Each structure stands twice: as structure tokens, then as C-alpha cells.
């Protein structure tokens, strides 16, 4: 992650000059640091051989296929299938979560539309997104964890169109 120019800046003009969102570069760095701390903590644990990749999988879920994610700025070819699956699951859960005091939970159709745009923008894996949609994994999760009013009809054709995916493509990672 790129370090901000200073650890913090509490100047009023500086804080009011944020161009996008409400966080300064310093505040955004502090929030993003949770991935670095995740990797450090999990790497210190004695995982058995079959779970040795858990620190990287957990630590890479904010990476994006185009290399603009964090903390390492990894690209598609540097991310495992598990990394890319967790990225989709994390975004989907965050969008649909009803327990966040700073936002209203989104419906299935709104959440999947956002994921489709993230696929289009090379942030999320298109093949795995298609698998998520085709398998209806989103619906299994929704039926267990979402409020009934969040569960609405899904137009898969429109999702694939937004994402720039061909419905007939074979699943390949």
C-alpha cells in the first residue's frame, strides 16, 4: 500500500478538501491497514499444511484483477481461485448486510448488479461471478441470512450484459 505523506492531518481545510468520499488519505490508509494486520496475525499461526494458504486468502480479498486493490496491488495472474472467490463473497456480503450502521442493506438484484459492474471494471473475476450466479449460491445465502424484502427477482441476462460476459462461455479459471 502506498503510504500517505503524513501519519494524520487534522487541518480543517485539508479535511474539507476530500475530493471523493469522506475520508482523507491518512484515514483511508488506516482502514486499509486491516489487511496488513490480518496477514501478519494469521501468518503467525501454526496452520497445518492443507491450510497454509489461509493468511494469503484472507489477506487478498481486497485485491482486484486489474492490480488496483490492496494491500499488495496484485493482478489476476497473482491471485488464486480461492482469493478471487473470497473477493466476490466479501463484496456480496458487505452489500447485503443489514447490520451496518452506515448503510442500508441492498436487495439481491442491486447487489448482483454492482458485482456485475465490478466484473466489467476488472475488479472481480467474471468466470467465478457467472458460477456464483448460475449456481444460485447468492440465493442459498439470501434464504438463510437476508430479510425477505431483500430477496427480489434476478435478470441473469442483464447481469451478464453489464459484466460483458457471454452466457454460453465455459467456466474456466
TrEMBL record:
It comes from the Bacteria. Signal peptide: none annotated. Residues 1-148 form the HD-GYP domain. InterPro entries: HD/PDEase_dom, HD_GYP_dom. CDD domains: HDc. It comes from Marinomonas ostreistagni. Pfam families: HD_5. This is HD domain-containing protein. PANTHER family: CYCLIC DI-GMP PHOSPHODIESTERASE PA4108, CYCLIC DI-GMP PHOSPHODIESTERASE PA4108-RELATED.
Amino acid at each position: 500500500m502506498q503510504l500517505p505523506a503524513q501519519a494524520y492531518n487534522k487541518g480543517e481545510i485539508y479535511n474539507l478538501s476530500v475530493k471523493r468520499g469522506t475520508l482523507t488519505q491518512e484515514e483511508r490508509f488506516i482502514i486499509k491497514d486491516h489487511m496488513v494486520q490480518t496477514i501478519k496475525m494469521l501468518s503467525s499461526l501454526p496452520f497445518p499444511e492443507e491450510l497454509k494458504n489461509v493468511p494469503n486468502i484472507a489477506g487478498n480479498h481486497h485485491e482486484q484483477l486489474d492490480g488496483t486493490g490492496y494491500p499488495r496491488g496484485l493482478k489476476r495472474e497473482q491471485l488464486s481461485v480461492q482469493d478471487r472467490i473470497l473477493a466476490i463473497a466479501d463484496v456480496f456480503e458487505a452489500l447485503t448486510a443489514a447490520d451496518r450502521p452506515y448503510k442500508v442493506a441492498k436487495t439481491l438484484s442491486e447487489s448482483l448488479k454492482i458485482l456485475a459492474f465490478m466484473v466489467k471494471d476488472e475488479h472481480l473475476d467474471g468466470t467465478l461471478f457467472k458460477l456464483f450466479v448460475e449456481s444460485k449460491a447468492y440465493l442459498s445465502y439470501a434464504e438463510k441470512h437476508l430479510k425477505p424484502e431483500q430477496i427480489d427477482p434476478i435478470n441473469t441476462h442483464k447481469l451478464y450484459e453489464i459484466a460483458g460476459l457471454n452466457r454460453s462461455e465455459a467456466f474456466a479459471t
